[in-house]
Amino acid sequence: MRAAILAFAIGIAWLQWQPAVPSVLVLGWLAGMAALCAAVAWRWRGMRVVAPVGAFLLGIAWAGWMAQVRLADALTAELEGRDIEVVGVVSGLPQHFENGLRFDFDVESSPAALPQSISLAWYRGFRRGEDDDRQAVPAMHAGERWRLTVRLKRPHGNWNPHSFDYEAWLFERGIRATGYVRAADGNALQDRFVARPGYAIERLRELIRERFEQVLADAPYGGVLVALVIGDQRAIETDLWRVFSRTGTTHLMSISGLHVTMVAALAWWLASWLWRRSARLPLLLPAQKAAALAGFLAAFDYCLLAGFAVPAQRTLYMLGVVAFALWSGRTIAASRVLALALLVVLLLDPWAVLAAGFWLSFGAVGLLFYIGGGRLGEGHWLAAWARAQWAITLGMIPALLALFQQFSLSSPIANAVAIPVVSFVVTPLALAGSAPIGVLGDWLLWLSHAVLAGLMLLLEWLAQSDWAVWQQHAPPPWSVFAGLAGMAWLLLPRGFPARWLGLVALLPLFLLSPERPAVNEARVVVLDVGQGLAVHVQTAGHDLLFDSGPMFSVEANSGNRIIVPYLRAVGVRKLDGMIVSHADKDHSGGAVSVVEEVPVAWLASSLDDDHEIAALPVPHRRCRDGEAWDWDGVHFELLHPRDEDYGLMRKTNDLSCVLKVTAGGRSALLTADIESRTEIALIQRHREQLHADVLLAPHHGSRTSSTPAFLRAVGAAEAIFPVGYRNRFGHPKEDIVARYVGARLWRTDRDGALDVHLGHDGVTIVAERALRRRYWH
Fold first, then answer.
1. Residue 377: helix, strand or coil by DSSP?
2. Looking at the domain that runs over 522-771, which CATH code has it been given?
3. Which of 128, 143, 355, 776 could be cross-linked to 171 through a Cys-Cys bond (beta carbons 3.0 to 4.6 Å apart)?
C-alpha cells in the first residue's frame, strides 16, 4: 500500500509540472489502465508489482481531472478590464494594507460568467469629491454579502528564474481572477452575515484577530500570536519573518504539525482524566477511545480555526488514522500512518505538491519517525533530542537549498529552545487567552506575549550573528537528488559501515557554481518586475545591475522581492557596478534594498546628490556621456546624459542613463525612459554608436518615445518591452509597437524574464515563461 500511495503522489506531482493538461479522453484512458492494473494485482498475487504502476497512472488521471475542472472556472479575456457589477460574500479574513483593504470574494451573481472565487482590493480614495468621508474604505467583515462594481484580470505574476510562482499559489487556492473595486453608487452592504459554516469559521477567526489587536495593540509580537492561533501569517511583520528565517524557526511561527499535536494531546489527556472520574462512562465507552475521539475533534477544530494549511492537514489526518486504529484495535506502523495522511492530502488538494511547505512538512515528519525508531541510537532523552535536531538539520539541507538557497546554521540551537517554549507554553496560553473569559483571558494573552518576548531576545541575537545563515546559489536539480541520497546514507542505522560517505554526496550542492558567460561574451537578463525595469548584465567575472525595478509598498519592492533572491540564486555574491538610470520609482524603487543585501562596488546614476539613493554608503558618481570600461572582453559605454544636460533637462526621463553593452561584435542598447527629445540628441551625437542587435524599448513603449528616426538608427533585430501585465498606462501602445517593423518583439508581461546571450555566435534570447511553462499560466 505504501508503495502505491507514493506512486500515486509521484503521478500527481508529474502532472503539476506539465505545460498542458491531457484531454478528458486521455485522462479517462489513464483511469481505465489504472483500474486494469488494480484488477491484475488483486487477482494474481505475483503481479502486485503492477499496483504502483496503476497508482501512478491514477495520480495523473486524478490531478488532471481536478485541473480540468479548475481551469474551466476561468475569466475570459473579453471580460478583463471591464466594469462588472457583482453580488457575493467576503469569504476570508480581510487584510488591511497601507492603501486600503484586500479580501477574497465568492461571487454569487453577476451579468457575466465569472469565476466562483476572486481576490479584490479596495483602495483608499476610490471616489474623489467634496465629501471626504467617501475617500475611506468601508469596514468589511468575513461573511458579509456586498454588491460591488469591480474590474478584473486573469491571475498574473512576475516570472523570473528561481522565482515564486504567484499564479500557482492563486490556482491552488481556487482564486481564478484578481481585481479591484471601482467607484460606483451601487457599492453597498447587502447582508451583515450569510449563515454558512465556512463563513462562520472565518467570522470567528476575524473576531479572535480583533480581540488580539485590542488587547495587544502596542505589543511588538502580537502578530505572531495571531498567526499561532488563527494561522494569519500576514499579521507578522517582514522584519520578524527575517529573524525566523535566519534562525530556522519559520515553521514554528505558523500553524505547525507540532502545535496541532499539542492541542490534540491536551484534549486527549483532559478527556481521559475526566472520563475515568466517572463510574458509568467507561462502561459505555472505554476511556482510551473517548480520549482518542476528543483529541481528534480538538485537532480538527484547531485546524479549522487556523485556516487548514497543509502542515495542519497532514497532522490532522495522521491523528485521524491513529484514532481509527485505536477504535478498531489495530496497530499501524508509523510509515503507514504518514502514507495515509499523504493520500488524504493529495485527494483533497492535488496542488499541495506545489507548496514548499508540503515537501518540508512531510520530509521533516518522515525524518522524525525514522529517528524515533531508535535507528540512530538509544540513550538519555536529552541525547535523543540532540540527535533529532542534528538529523533534522542535516536531512533538510538539500531541500532548503533547492527551495530557498539558504539554511540556518543556528537552527539547532534556536529550535532546541523555541520548540518547547512555543509549542508547550506560548501557543497554549494564546489559545486559552483567545476565549471570551474576560480579564483572565487578557492576562493570559499578555503572559503568552511576555514569554514570547523573552524567546525573541535569543532569536534576534542569533539572527544578527554573521554565522547564522548559509546562503548560496541554487544547486542543479541532479545535485539535489544526490544530496538527498547522501542524507539517506548518512542517516542509516547506527553501526552501518562508512556512513560518512553520505557527506561526499553533499559536495556538489556547494561546490558546483552556476555557469557564467565565457570571455568576450555577455548575458543580459531583463527581469520581469512588472511595470518597471531591472536588468542584470553578467560577464565571465563581473556583474552589473542596470535599474532596480519598482517599489510596491513601504516594505515591499522589487529589490527585496525579486532582484536579491534572483542574484543569490544565480550565484552573485557582489555587484561590481550598479546603475540607476533616473529617479522614477519604477526604476529606482528597489535600489536601497539591493544595496542593503548585496555588496556594491560603485553606483552611477542621474540622481541629485541629496537623493536617498545617491546618499547610500556606496561610491557614487553621475552617468556621463563618453564614460566606458571593459570587463572580460565585454565593452560598456554610457551614451547619455552629458554634463550640461543636468542643468538643461528638467524631466527625469530625459536624464535617463543610456548604456550600450557590446560582446563578440553583438550589442544591446539599454535606454531606460528616454523620450523623443533625448532620442534626437542621441542621433545627432552618436548615430553610428546607436546601432545595436537588441534594443530595450525606450519608456516601455510609450507614445513619448520610439521615434521612427531613432529606431532606424538603432536597427535592432530584437526589441524588448519591459511592461507590467495590463498596466494602467497601456504600455506598450499599439501604434508604437507597429513602428518596430522587422524586429522580433518580446514583452516581459507575456514572456517573463528574458535571458539574452551576446557573443561571436550571435544573439540568442530565451523567455522564462516558455522555458518553465505550466498549464495554469
1. coil
2. 3.60.15.10
3. 776
